[in-house]
Amino acid sequence: NGEVIGEHERFHAADVAATGTSLYNGTVAFIADSFVGGNRLQQATDGVETFTLNNSTRYATAVDIVSATTDFSATNVQTGVQAHYGAEKTLQYFSSRYGRDSFDDNGAVLTSYVSYDTNYVNAFWNGSAMTYGDGNGTTYGPLVSLDIVGHEVSHGVTEFSAGLIYQNESGALNESFSDIFGESIENFALGTNDWLMGDDIGIGGSGALRSMANPNLYGDPDTYEGTNWFTGTADNGGVHTNSGVQNKWYYILVNGESGTNDVGFDYNVTGIGIDDAGAIAYRNLTVYLSQNSTYEVARVGAIQSAIDLFGEDSQQHLSTAAAWDAVNVIDPTYRELPS
Predict the structure, then answer these.
(1) pLDDT of 253-303, one tens digit each?
(2) Residue numbers annotated as active site
(3) C-alpha separations of 174 from 61, 218, 293 in Å
(4) Exposed/middle/buried for 28, CB within 10 Å: 0-12, 13-18, 19+?
(5) pLDDT surpasses 60 at 337
(6) Dihedral of alpha carbons 213, 218, 127, 170, sign
């Protein structure tokens, strides 16, 4: 009579629990795929697949990263293990904290390519996949640390939410949100974080590119229009440099801090912890910001996000506003008008 009495999938995923030696976090656990040739760094549970380019720049040459067993401890797979583990933790962070289903919130598979090019000191998000260089082998190792993986994948979250244009203040916010979630993902995976972006990739010393606790340490501003504030056209209008302002806001909001900023304003902010601060940042990015948002718009959206999540006059609300004051992103109605 046409009634369907049974179905059998023709496509089979065989996810298995695996462990491996990572570059920067010791022995880690993750999910791999069991196939006829052994086990490989792919999995359907979270939607993660990791390949190596073996120093090519042509994605068509990418191949599986394979182990005969579920123990990925060989030296030649450690870079892939680190990237795969970081991608899993990134997707788990956004899912468990905010209910987000991958970077596009629609279950997209996160594909990573390691060992791109030779002596390539960079990592990038291309709109659908992650690519990591191996560093130069002298000062920088492979750019696959947890915070870098979280940073780059978070560019995808921004692309599929606020869509902040990568220029001037909106671009600085774009970069900052990636730093914010990069450090938050490091904390989620390890239970702690160092507030230094990329510190692990340094060979024989720190590989940090930015400090969120002290942006001035790397030539970035911790105060809006203060010391190190960039006003030129290089770096798309200083997107990496001026990200220091929201980075410092987030650090203060998480940890609390007292001090005097570059315009002489004395502040004393009570910290609210990384979970609540991360929730405020995520809601601001995905609900209140848009392509051309500025720092003033980010302040308004963050404060409203804190009210939405925790209530008006809650400590989270008061600290969010106070942390923006601390970095000189003040209520625009109080800004002095030019004479």
Answers:
(1) 999 999 999 999 999 999 999 999 999 999 999 999 999 999 999 999 999
(2) 152, 240
(3) 31, 19, 10
(4) buried
(5) no
(6) positive
Tell me the sheet residues that pair with 32.
Answer: 16
Tokens standing for residue 258: 């007292």
Q: What does the pLDDT read at residue 8?
A: 74
Amino acid 37: pLDDT: 85
**What's the Cα-to-Cα distance from 300 to each of 209, 215, 293, 330, 333, rounded to whole Å?**
29, 23, 11, 9, 12
Q: Would you state the structure tokens that stand for residue 9, as one six-digit string?
A: 């999938």
**pLDDT, tens only, 168-219:** 999 999 999 999 999 999 999 999 999 999 999 999 999 999 999 999 999 9
Q: Give the Å distances, CA to CA, from 11 to 8, 14, 35, 83.
A: 9, 10, 12, 26
List the beta bridge partners of residue 35: 38
| Residue 193: partners with Cβ closer than 8 Å, 6 or more residues away | 147, 183, 184, 186, 187, 274
For 13, the token pair is 């995923």
Among 144, 149, 140, 152, smallest CA distance to 207 is for 140
Cβ distance 301 to 287 under 8 Å?
yes
Cβ neighbours for 11, distance < 8 A, ≥ 6 positions apart: none
Cβ pair 213, 219 in contact under 8 A: no
Cα dihedral 49, 208, 124, 240 in deg (nearest 10): 140
pLDDT at residue 338 greater than cutoff 50:
no
Single-letter amino acid, residue 258 = S
Tell me the H-state helices in the chain. Answer: 78-98, 146-159, 168-190, 234-238, 244-255, 274-283, 295-310, 315-326
Query: Cα separation of 20 and 29, whole Å?
Result: 7
Residue type, 234: A
Distances (CA, A) of 140 to 15, 135, 212: 33, 5, 20
